[in-house]
Amino acid sequence: MSDDIKFDATMMGRLGQALSFICGADHPATAALKKAAETGADKDVKAARAQFLKVKPNERRAALAMLDD
Q1: Which range marks the domain in which residue 18 is found?
Q2: What are phi and psi of 40, to 5 degrees?
Q3: pLDDT tens, 14-43?
Q4: Dihedrals phi, psi of 59, to nearest 5 degrees
Q5: How far is CA 67 from CA 15, 17, 32, 41, 43, in A?
């Protein structure tokens, strides 16, 4: 499901907000997404994508579903 998503700085910001609501602001994936959104650096985007993929599948789906609204 998340393989077809374009992980750019804008998407990272939106995912970070959704994940913050679901997992909390102190979750490692939330922090990585926030950093990637702020810097837009390729290495930060790759790190955030990796952290996002470590999130429990149901939490990942919930965060992605929030983006559809």
Answers
A1: 2-68
A2: 70, 5
A3: 999 999 999 999 999 999 999 999 999 999
A4: -70, -35
A5: 7, 10, 18, 22, 23
DSSP 8-state secondary structure symbol assigned to residue 5: S
DSSP-derived secondary structure letter, 10? H
pTM: 0.85
CA 2 to mean position of chain CA atoms: 10
- In angstroms, the CA 33 to CA 29 distance is 6
Neighbours of 29 (CB within 10 A): 25
Q: What does the block give as tokens for 66?
A: 């929030």
CA dist 38 and 18 (Å) reads 16
How many distinct structural domains can be found in the chain?
1
